[in-house]
Amino acid sequence: MKLRKLHIDDYKMFKDFDISFVDENDEALPIVVLAGVNGSGKTTLLEYIQHNPNSIETTKNKEEILVEDDTFFMFEDIMKRHNENNIKSNFFYFPSGIDSIENVANEFVKSFYFFLKEKDYRPSEVKEHFDNYMKEIFNGLDIGFKYSYLDRDDNVWFTNDNGKQFEIKDLSTGEKTLLSKIMYLYFLGYKDKVILIDEPELSLHPSWQNKVLKIYENFATQNNCQIIIATHSPHIIGSAKNEYLRFLRKDEEGNIEAIENITAYGRDIEWVLQQMGVADTRLPKIVKRFDEIQELINNQEFDKADDALDKLEYVIGENDKDILALRNDLAFERMDFEEDN
What we know:
Layout: E1 3-11, E2 14-20, E3 31-36, H1 42-51, E4 56-58, H2 62-67, E5 72-74, H3 75-85, H4 101-117, H5 123-137, E6 145-150, E7 156-160, E8 165-167, H6 173-188, E9 194-198, H7 206-222, E10 226-230, H8 234-239, E11 245-250, E12 256-259, H9 269-275, H10 284-298, H11 302-316, H12 321-340
Parallel strand pairs: 3-10, 3-11, 5-9, 9-10
Antiparallel strand pairs: 1-2, 1-4, 6-7, 7-8, 11-12
């Protein structure tokens, strides 16, 4: 099942609101990325979808949706639901009471290990199959470590690119988060579901934020799912295909609207931030000093401008593009002034 269209008459900040989840060929999208400034309703929209599935046009009729009341998942609810319902899958049994990222990630890997072991794989074969499975999931994302072995106390060990062995507890928060979120979906093998994920970028290094969307896209395509993501990450937004992106913003009357056909794919981070309402990407006090220097140049106070540039350059470095631009501007303005006088 996938969402196609949604209309909200009146819900919190949404008034007479419409949003589409289809491409230009009227096909339901596997990934939808919701972006926008704070207060534009990204998380609220996910909550509305979760609690009002019957008001949404989907690829199934309403009667089928009523039966499938587990079709919609806020990611934060997934672990809770599986703890409560004690659900098993072919790859993974999620034991109740596991609530920390570290334990969740450890249980994922351990369960997969026992799944392979029960099929009478030798230890070397278990390692090979697990490594291949990790490569398939994280294709294109260099996570920098791979499975090593399971010790006698059922602790999972990994090996990094330098050959050093370590336990899951020694991974960074971002690495644990990546293992727990991504591998959870793959291990449970959700199919034909709509999965709602709020801020998948949390704790992830920017280099991973650039690539993580592709992993979710692969999962959605392979399992006929639709994943709807709300994010503040310019890295995720800049990596989203243009057809996937929906910018939420206020119109002239102050109502929230969903904007399509914004060409953010591959754009630089500064441009994406500007679309999200970030006027300046520098610290405000640094921006003020740049403005003051420009004003000195405009007023032909060249020596003061030169001195101010030296002081600012000492703080942020001589190769800064705006420092270089002001240096050039100062040089040309001074030369023109001297020629005229």
